[in-house]
Amino acid sequence: MTNVVVVGSQWGDEGKGKIVDWLSERADVVVRFQGGHNAGHTLVIDGVSYKLSLLPSGVVRPGKLAVIGNGVVIDPHALIAEIERLDGQGVTISPDNLRVADNATLILSLHRQLDALREDAASNSGTKIGTTRRGIGPAYEDKVGRRAIRVMDLADLDTLPAKVDRLLTHHNALRRGLGEPEVSHESIMEELSTIAARVLPFMDTVWLLLDRHRRRGARILFEGAQGTLLDIDHGTYPFVTSSNTVAGQAAAGSGMGPGALGYILGITKAYTTRVGEGPFPTELKDAIGEFLGERGHEFGVVTGRKRRCGWFDAALVRQSVAVNGISGIALTKLDVLDGLDELKICVGYKLDGVEIDHLPAAQAAQARVEPIYITLEGWKESTVGARSWADLPAQAIKYVRQVEELIGAPVALLSTSPERDDTILVTDPFED
Length: 432
Known about the structure:
Layout: E1 4-8, H1 16-24, E2 29-32, E3 41-45, E4 48-52, E5 65-68, E6 73-74, H2 76-87, E7 98-101, E8 105-106, H3 109-125, H4 136-144, H5 160-177, H6 185-199, E9 203-204, H7 206-215, E10 220-223, H8 249-252, E11 263-269, E12 272-274, H9 287-295, E13 308-310, E14 312-313, H10 314-324, E15 328-332, E16 342-351, E17 354-356, H11 363-368, E18 370-377, H12 394-407, E19 411-415, E20 423-425
Parallel strand pairs: 1-10, 1-11, 2-5, 2-10, 5-7, 6-8, 7-9, 11-15, 14-16, 15-19
Antiparallel strand pairs: 3-4, 12-13, 16-17, 16-18, 19-20
Pfam families: Adenylsucc_synt
Subunit structure: Homodimer.
Binding site for substrate: 301-307
């Protein structure tokens, strides 16, 4: 048995929810290791849809322990609201099945406000990033700036005022520069004190908790949010999220050593999408792009924003395989391609007339690259619900094999619909 890390290999929205749910049924512990409530999964279980944006997927399955690691930034009010929403769907969440890292950073109202102020200012200057305005980035800034309020601080209201003062020294200086009114010490203290009793029962020393489970032989599933191309270091900077989304963050964001990570599963859509601003070499702004968006229901789980759609970019996924150390991929939404006469796959780029095999890191260069395509024949038969290779059209199999060859990683799972059982299992990540 091995532990499994699930990461997105593109710009997020690859269909991780279904795959994580499929894996979480067989895991003992499910750990969320980065990001905030700006990304989400939709789980469909027995015909019921559960939309999660902060809680690990394991919470909807009885007998599983869900863990929010120290690499996550937590809006405590959003956390409680999500718990209450699931309770309304009949899912009971208690300290028996959810633990939150004591050293995780909190998102406060002033983070959300700063996020929106900056994004509005950027919209006017043409440098908009496309954030969800939920305070994720500013919270990570405070974490790195060593002035963050953490979950454990809610347990010591006597020392909290000095920490709030330190935080406000920074934020009120920013707000004065932006021409905004200052935030009062009292308002932040009230914001934190009113939620403390709801959050603290879930608090735990997560690195120690996970180490004990590992030593007992528990199967641990590490669940990431967003995708590799949104990584703060390895993504299309500055049009990225504010955390590391790659597999290595599973260790840093949970307190487990990298030797415990095991199988790295890259969730990979059979075409490409992204939300928000930034480069997208294979984007289709034509009828085929509209077809992919409509057939694939390409709208954000959390924000509802329409996703940009394009052909599969093997050069990008090949980069993701390298920086994550991906063992195998779960290829999702193959069925969305049903009915197209031909399919294109990007195998590299031209930059100023020179062929290159990877996306350059420089923003200006990313904006100038031109995709180099190969063309494959499409298929007219339906792949929806296929559960074996024999159920797939020959051209669909050829497409999958071409993807494997181009990205340098095998397909471990193939998803053919949102239903969890409509999956072709090639390699079991927990047994590899």
